[in-house]
Write a structure and sequence with these properties.
- The structure is a single chain.
- The chain is an all-alpha fold.
- The protein has one domain (40-102, 109-180): Four Helix Bundle (Hemerythrin (Met), subunit A), CATH 1.20.120.1630.
- It is 68% helix and 0% strand.
- It has seven helices and no strands.
- The protein has helices at residues 2-20, 23-30, 40-66, 73-96, 124-139, 143-170, 174-180.
- The longest helix is centred in the last third of the chain and has 28 residues, at 143-170.
- It is globular and about 50 Å long.
- The model has no long low-confidence stretch (mean pLDDT 93).
């Protein structure tokens, strides 16, 4: 547990520094969660993602307390590496896309980002979070927590589909971008 806390702390330092030095990104990231969403579907999706995320930690804690899982150390270390990779990917998202809002919205002067990782996958933020939420319960040595985190991933997939519909109808060039970048989250798979 202490290792994953150290990984999260160390990876959050450059991320937080970058966000606080980027006013547009800071403003876009400070309003988050179901209440910040404007559309009812996104309020529901974010509520479910929030609940499943909290459940991951609760279940992992109960798993630790009652010794339900027997996760080998190498797999827990792999989980730590996935957490670090996911946080690194989030940093890459923020460096490439200052429009990366915590809510599903279209900013006044927003444009489609097609460079860097966005030339490979359309939703790098959700891909990053997926890596993180799969790594976290493993880092906490909990197979049962991993089951709970799968609900978070399913919520992210639902969010992707809902968000794409909104972006396709309101963000100029997004339909063309979808035609040229096939993969939503995982290159070669989805």
């Amino acid at each position: 547990m202490w290792v994953v806390l150290a990984v999260v702390a160390v990876t959050n330092i450059p991320l937080t520094q970058f966000i606080t030095k980027t006013p547009r990104l800071l403003a876009a990231r400070t309003k988050a969660g179901p209440r910040a969403e404007k559309r009812p579907s996104q309020k529901l999706i974010m509520g479910l993602i929030g609940l499943s995320s909290v459940a991951t930690y609760i279940v992992a804690g109960l798993d630790h307390q009652f010794h339900w899982s027997n996760v080998p150390p190498w797999l827990a270390i792999t989980g730590d590496l996935l957490v670090a990779l996911g946080m690194g990917m989030v940093y890459w998202v923020f460096k490439e896309n200052v429009f990366a809002s915590a809510t599903v919205e279209i900013a006044t002067d927003q444009k489609v980002i097609t460079t860097g990782p966005y030339a490979i996958v359309r939703h790098l933020m959700y891909a990053s979070v997926t890596v993180y939420v799969i790594g976290m319960p493993l880092a906490l040595a909990s197979y049962w927590g991993l089951l709970a985190s799968i609900l978070t991933v399913l919520g992210l997939v639902w969010r992707v589909f809902d968000e794409e519909g909104m972006l396709a109808s309101g963000l100029p060039g997004y339909r063309e971008y979808c035609a040229s970048v096939r993969w939503r989250l995982v290159p070669g798979a989805f």
